[in-house]
Amino acid sequence: MNNFSRLDLNLLVTLDTLLVERNVTRAAERLNLSQPSVSVQLAKLREVFGDPLLLPAQRGMRPTARADELREPLREALEALGRAVAPTRPFEPAEAGTTWRVAAADYAESAILLPALAGLRAAAPNTRLAVVEAVPSRMARQLEGGEIDLFFHTSVGAPPGLHARVLFQERYVLVGRAGHPRLKRRPTLAQFCALEHVVVSPAGGGFAGPTDEALAQQGLTRKVVLSVPHFLFMMSAVAGTDMVAMLPERLARTAPGLRVVEAPLEVPGYEMAMLWHERRHRDPAHKWLREQIAGSL
User: Fold this and answer.
1) Which of 14, 26, 141, 259 is the residue whose CA sits 20 to 30 A from 98?
2) How far apart are CA 202 and CA 232, in angstroms?
3) What distances in angstroms separate CA 2 from CA 6, 7, 129, 240, one per listed residue?
4) Residue 28 and residue 22: Cα distance in Å, rounded?
5) In what order do the strands lie in the sheet with 244-248?
6) Can you tell me the distance from the alpha carbon of 58 to that of 44, in angstroms, rounded to the nearest whole number?
7) pLDDT band at 6 (very low <50, low <70, confident <90, very high)
8) 127 or 9: whose pLDDT is higher?
9) Sign of CA dihedral 78, 81, 87, 90
10) What's the pLDDT tens digit per position in 130-163?
């Protein structure tokens, strides 16, 4: 319609009411307007559409052929607009068929998502969860673009502008295989440094981490002999050899075949957070998912 820019929503609502009532007085009562106001709006509508739209009849008014053409499309458009601006409906997990996409490294998969799975499946059996590789450099873009709903990452290093909820505080413990001859008790600092260590290097190829920074402050170094990209490989390597590792406690306490002891030095831990974008912040389904995950830990 060439004159669409001259229309406003009030005029369309008035036209819809007039087409139903076919009487200016009754239409004014339904719209809670004065009769002259409705007459003025009808005059504007006639000008915009270039058609009388409603003509005097013996009882009330009768629509023109153009008005009859407008009736159904106008009603459908107003109903669609009403649905769009209606208050958001509560999320019903038992009925929902939502597909969520979250980004998590193998640590977050084990420490965060695994404890939440049973509750998610029981409460929302028709939903689906896709876990994708967590690449921190893509975090902000993926969340902003709606490619993923949640990103699990340490609080430190999270891009500014995202919503964040700290899920827990993590600490490091020393692990080795069950029956490791040098882990029958807590090792001394010298013994600790002499052990053969495995480190996780998410970016690949690194042989140092928070433990090495803590040792460096005391002028010490340890013997790192293996660098791997994932915690699962680390735990398997430690369980089958005499190598040891500094492992996040939440993984260490649930890993079979490993002995857990306190390390002889304090290594700073970290906060694990759940991150999301403003575009999903008020969505009822998204809020439910966030509460479900946080409540499972």
Assistant:
1) 141
2) 12
3) 9, 10, 46, 76
4) 11
5) 223-228, 196-200, 244-248, 172-177, 258-261
6) 24
7) low
8) 127
9) positive
10) 999 999 999 999 999 889 999 999 999 888 999 9
Angstrom distance (rounded) from CA 208 to CA 139: 24
What is residue 127's predicted lDDT score, i.e. its pLDDT?
96
Q: Can you read off the two tokens belonging to residue 149?
A: 């709903």
175 in Cβ contact with 251 (< 8 Å): no
Q: Are 273 and 167 in contact (CB under 8 A)?
A: yes
Region 233-261 average pLDDT: 93
Residue 58 identity (one-letter amino acid): Q
pTM: 0.72
Residue 135: how many other CB atoms lie within 10 Å? 13
Which two structure tokens, joined as six digits, stand for 156?
Answer: 């430190």
User: The tokens of 52 are what?
Assistant: 């009388």
pLDDT in the model for residue 1: 42
| Contact of 269 with 251, CB cutoff 8 Å | no
User: Burial letters for 60-78: b for 16+ Cβ neighbours within 10 Å, e otherwise?
Assistant: ebebbeebeebeeebeeee
Q: Give 87's pLDDT tier (boundaries 50, 70, 90).
A: low
